[in-house]
Design goal:
The structure holds 2 protein chains of 2 kinds. By secondary structure, chain A is α/β, with parallel strands linked by helices. Helices cover about 35% and strands about 25% of the residues of chain A. Chain B has 14 helices and 2 strands, in the order E-H-H-H-H-H-H-H-H-H-H-H-H-H-H-E. The chains are: A alpha/beta, B mainly alpha. Chains A and B meet through helix 4, helix 11, helix 12 and helix 13 of A and helix 8 and helix 9 of B. The complex binds adenosine-5'-triphosphate and magnesium ion. Adenosine-5'-triphosphate binds next to strand 2, helix 2 and helix 15 of chain A.
């Protein structure tokens, strides 16, 4: 019959003839006040790295959480290997060979690496001999180039190692599909590259990867296909070969994509020194010196950007300035006052804003709502909280930074990752009336927003004579925003350049020297 | 054994409701078996019904439980587990008794009662502070410390009750009754006193205001949800912990004064047997309220009614003083188990060497 022929034809209308490993049909997901996903149709094919891109709040995380059974869709169908399935929870997903790795590791600190993996397997009544687990850990850590001893307890591992354990566990669970929701975003650049190499290899051997990232070049490097989401809808799917970064940006941001630029922002006009660091020595988490005699000056009307590979003392330096880490030796002078013995509270009351790394851990309290997350900062509230004032500030920030939220009373945990970051960044930019101290201030933000945030920081610096000390692992960011570029390596400042004279190769060389 | 957080928690009102139902069922079974079939589930339901409907009888227990429940809630909101309500309560009782009996203020009822409440506030606060300081500055777990402090408080009060303060006339193991002028004023037809009622309402409003409008209230909330944010905001985590426990102890101490002035009118030896146990029952009230201030009176009403029901069953002549505790214990236990399995999954794994 004609109708039947037609419908079956449309069913097989996908470009590839094989059955997709995952097929989504009309997937819709609503949350109170938002439609996170609106009638999503998507096919994911075996052996491919499929990147999922889109601006903050586009629905990327929601989509993979549905595939992992954390959310149940309000409508639509999921097919795995052509068969319709219901994924009611992560157990179901894992049984289907789908494993998710997110930004924050969910392994148990008190147990060893092996025990964690055994635990993951036992949940599914699967057992693997310890020998096989060790083999797999060794195999993967060799490919990725990050060493792990299977019998160490997890709390001793670095973030990178933990993420690796997550992936190994996924593989031992028999993952055919890896869902990586910004799982690699927070890794140091070098290790990121190694992970990408591994991902590529996994796909070449027949595995499937859904990769979420905000770094379009990274997606273009490693992925075969890119699907762009916007406001809960699929804008389109394109093969990486035959597309360009501009085209992807246009799909992601529409008109706004023309504003994306990595040109250096206008230089400030530095005036008096507001922050001075003299021969600073600070210990890291494990007791060794992480900062070894750093000297640094930040003037008003200037952005000082600290370039460096993660783990070279930038974090400790920033925390010492914020008085969140003890100073072993040396002096920090802020606004002509030695703050070595002052508290974070003192800085807060004296015009300092602070954007820490890992926003959800150190920058906001996700159980509390946006208003409370603003009111908690002493800059904005005395003993009695003026909610009217806080509320009008919140509305202003929501508008200016386009924070996607149903209301200012929404608990922050209901926002998308990037929008959580926007809450933090916008709050701290407001608090910084004299000095902004930041570590990776735009990570987790989409490209257009990241660039807007940099522009806002720069215009504050220029127009309001604010100073900024910004450490970032993103060299593009350092070069775009800084007036002075400082390179940090092994706890020391190994180079200081005026931004207009800094050469990228030279900075890169000093970073890894 | 390890405990893993659930990805999808259950709806949160299920736990308290289920805990009540299951806890009561367990109590019925226990009481039926223990009494050799004398206390039937029917008796229990009847006395529960009586407990719930006899508002006048319930009133004093209700009000005291509201105050203690709010006191505990203040620290629980900050994830500081004050198990020392009993100790703080009895330090309050003791200092209030001192004011009533020995301070010389008894000539004027108003001054004396005010002083009783004030001194009890200080005493409860001081007792909590003794646990708060090591918790804040040495990171010593507050649960065992506050718990042990209950026994220390009992023994101090016992010591003074049968020592210095013991009434000499008949030689009973108790203090003399507090002077008429220092007794709180009973509201006709109920068991509650005017002062207790005012105290309860005042504390409720003040704590409500604190959580709604003050930085301190917000800090205590954030202390439980993300202490790291407090640090990055420049707020002392230590001080916040200290304040949460201190306020908690102060409020509970005041309940002690109200108990002495409204209910007991003396201290009887040994207190660990004579105590109404509000410091512990209050924990259940705070939990059943799911740490929502507005729900504390509801939880206190339910628990108060069960308390009365327990006493009724006791009066029926079966079971010892422990009947009330059977109710409270079963519900609290069920609650603890339910909250654990609702938020966490428990996995047992064998460590392989
Ligand atoms: N549990 C939830 N409750 C309510 N709203 C939610 C929930 N999870 C997501 N949302 C909303 O759904 C929309 C999509 O969120 P999602 O996390 O999928 O975005 P995303 O594409 O991952 O963004 P980002 O790049 O910022 O991580 C957002 O508007 C978000 O506020
Ligand atoms: Mg996301």
């Amino acid at each position: 019959m004609a109708t039947q022929a037609e419908s079956s034809k449309s069913f097989f209308s996908s470009p590839s003839t094989e059955t997709p490993i995952i097929k989504l049909e009309g997937i819709t997901k609503r949350f109170p006040g938002v439609i996170a996903l609106d009638n999503i149709n998507l096919e994911i094919h075996r052996g491919k790295v499929h990147a999922l891109l889109g601006e903050n709040g586009a629905g990327k995380s929601t989509l993979v959480k549905i595939l992992y059974g954390i959310y149940t869709p309000d409508g639509g169908r999921i097919y795995i290997d052509g068969r319709p399935v219901k994924i009611a929870g992560p157990m179901d997903a894992i049984r289907l060979g789908i494993v998710m790795v997110s930004q924050s590791p969910v392994i148990i600190d008190r147990l060893t690496v092996e025990e964690n993996i055994v635990l993951g397997l036992e949940k599914l009544n699967m057992f693997a001999p310890i020998r096989r687990i060790r083999e797999k850990i060794n195999e993967v850590s060799k490919t990725v180039g990050v060493k792990i001893d299977p019998s160490t307890e997890v709390w001793k591992l670095s973030y990178t190692q933990k993420q690796l354990v997550e992936i190994v566990r996924g593989l031992l669970l028999g993952a055919r599909v890896l869902l990586l929701d910004e799982a690699i975003t927070y890794l140091p650049l070098e290790e990121k590259k190694k992970f990408y190499k591994f991902i590529r290899q996994f796909a070449d051997e027949g595995g499937t990867v859904i990769l979420i990232t905000h770094k379009i070049p990274e997606a273009m490097d490693v992925a075969d296909l890119i699907t762009v989401l916007r406001r809960g809808r699929v804008v389109g799917t394109v093969p990486v070969k035959g597309t360009s970064i501009e085209e992807i940006r246009k799909m992601m941001f529409g008109e706004k994509s023309s504003e994306i630029t990595y040109e250096r922002l206008p230089l400030g006009s530095p005036s008096e020194t507001i922050l001075e660091i003299n021969d600073l020595w600070v210990r890291g988490d494990f007791g060794d010196y992480a900062v070894k005699g750093a000297n640094l000056k930040v003037r008003r009307g200037e952005v000082v950007g600290i370039a460096g590979v993660a783990g070279n003392g930038q974090k400790e330096l920033i925390q010492a300035v914020m008085r969140l880490r003890p100073v072993e030796k040396g002096k920090i002078i802020y606004d002509n006052i030695d703050i070595t013995n002052k508290t974070t509270h003192y800085l807060r009351l004296n015009g300092v804003g602070y954007i820490p790394d890992l926003p959800a851990k150190y920058g906001v309290s996700i159980e509390n709502n946006i208003l409370e997350n603003i009111a908690i900062i002493p800059t904005f509230s005395k003993e009695i909280i003026n909610w009217k004032h806080i509320k009008s500030l919140a509305y202003k920030l929501i508008r200016e930074f386009e924070i996607k939220t149903p209301s200012p009373e929404t608990p922050v945990k209901f926002l998308s990752g990037g929008n959580i970051m926007k809450v933090l960044v916008s709050r701290e930019l407001t608090a910084a009336t004299k000095l902004l101290v930041a570590y990776n201030p735009t990570r987790a933000l989409d490209e257009a927003t990241a660039i807007r945030v940099r522009k806002i920081i720069k215009s504050k610096v220029i127009n309001e004579n604010v100073a900024a000390l910004i450490a970032s692992e993103d060299l593009d960011e350092i070069f775009q925003i800084s007036d002075t570029i400082v390179v940090m390596n092994s706890g020391k400042i190994v180079g200081v350049f005026p931004a207009d004279k800094a050469k990228r190769e030279e900075v890169e060389h000093l970073m890894v020297m | 054994m390890v405990i893993v957080r659930r990805v999808k928690p259950l709806p949160y009102w299920i736990v308290p409701v289920l805990a009540l139902v299951v806890g009561l069922l367990i109590s019925m079974i226990i009481l039926y078996v223990m009494s050799g079939g004398v206390i039937t589930p029917y008796d229990i339901l009847l006395s529960i019904y009586y407990g719930f409907t006899n508002v006048g009888l319930l009133a004093k227990t209700f009000a005291l439980l509201v105050i203690v429940g709010i006191g505990l809630l203040v620290s629980f909101k900050g994830a500081i587990w004050n198990i020392g309500g009993e100790g703080q309560f009895y330090m309050g009782v003791m200092l209030a008794a001192w004011v009533a009996l020995f301070s010389g203020f008894a000539f004027n009822g108003f001054i004396a009662k005010t002083m009783m409440i004030l001194m009890a506030l200080l005493a409860g606060g001081f007792w909590a502070l003794l646990a708060a300081l090591p918790r804040a500055y040495l990171n010593i777990d507050e649960v065992p410390v506050t718990l042990m402090m209950n026994y220390i408080a009992y023994y101090i009060v016992n010591y003074i009750t049968i020592g210095e303060w013991r009434e000499k006339q008949y030689g009973y193991y108790r203090t003399v009754t507090i002077p008429e002028s220092t007794m709180f004023q009973v509201i006709d037809g109920t068991t509650i006193t005017l002062e207790l009622l005012i105290l309860m309402i005042t504390i409720f409003i003040l704590v409500w205001l604190m959580f709604k409008y003050t930085s301190l209230g917000l800090r205590i909330k954030v202390l439980s949800s993300n202490p790291n944010l407090l640090r990055s905001s420049g707020i002392s985590v230590q001080l916040t912990i200290l304040m949460a426990l201190l306020l908690s102890g102060m409020i509970i101490g005041m309940a002690g004064a109200a108990y002495l002035g409204s209910v007991s009118h003396n201290i009887s030896y040994p207190v660990e047997e004579k105590t109404p146990g509000y410091g512990y029952t209050g924990i259940l009230v705070a939990w059943l309220s799911m740490l929502e201030l507005i729900a504390v009176p509801i939880a206190a009403y339910i628990i108060g009614a069960l308390h009365t029901a327990g006493i009724n069953i006791q009066i029926m002549g079966v079971g010892g003083a422990a009947v009330v505790n059977v109710f409270i214990g079963s519900i609290l236990l069920t609650y603890a188990v339910l909250i654990t399995i609702s938020e966490y999954k428990i996995k047992i794994i064998v460590k392989k060497r």
